[in-house]
Amino acid sequence: MLKFCGGALIFVFFSCVCLAIAANFAAHNRTDVSLFMREAPDQALTECFSESGDLYRQLGHHGPAIENPYYALRLYFNHNGGMDLYSKSRTGLELKATRWYPTAAQQRAGFGGDFYHVGDTVGLGGIRLWDGDAVRRLDPVTARYGRVVSEGSSSSMEMRSEGVPYRGKRVDIMVRVTVFSDRRVARVDVFSTLGMPVQFVTGINQRHGQQLIAGDDYLLTWAAASGDVAKGAIEVGAALLYNSEDFEESIVEPVQVLRISKPCKQLTYWICSANSMESELNTLESFKNFVEAH
Questions:
Q1: Is the distance from CB of 173 to CB of 129 less than 8 angstroms?
Q2: Residue 251 above 90 pLDDT?
Q3: What is the CATH number of domain 29-293?
């Protein structure tokens, strides 16, 4: 017969409660991560590393990816530093089934797809640096790391670029993107991890035939599908939300609209998306109202 003293019994009870809470969070985590090598698609990874900083062709969907019920995001694991978007017509998790590139049959069955063309731009909220004279990529590097984590009711991906030349010195820049089960907006945190203040550059790419709205603290675009990977008539909205006090300058280029931050060691902003095939935010007006409310 087992006997417990009062303290032990309390400890067992507390442990059971913690396990129950953890299980409840896991059951309600409607987010996911995706990271794998193209040669071993069924072997899920949590980390990746390259001294050259380029695993674009070796990694599945060209870099780490995360998703919430509304869309998925990926970071290109190369010199570009852009962030790409996977749109969904219905809520749910899809990356394990489509691996970012759905077949024609999957699309006919209702899966989303890669309708958003990033090209050589920052995409939706990607990161570069401003050196006082020009926009600089996070390249070359002495090493680049990637990582994905899913816990609680969120999932995140990280990319750390080490040894990036910046104003005569070397800096390490880390980008972390987090999606949440119950929130359409995703959080982006960027850090200069060695403690040297830098000027971050982020923004949103310009798409053919788009409607661009620049608010006091957001950039929003709405345009017909601009990629050539997924097929179908769809309009995709993308938005960058930020604190205007964190930025000091703007650059408008034919392919992208950029915001340059004040010198800092850490910067936070938010991104989100919607599209015309959704049941909720399926028009420019409804998406704009959502963005302005957040």
A1: yes
A2: yes
A3: 2.70.98
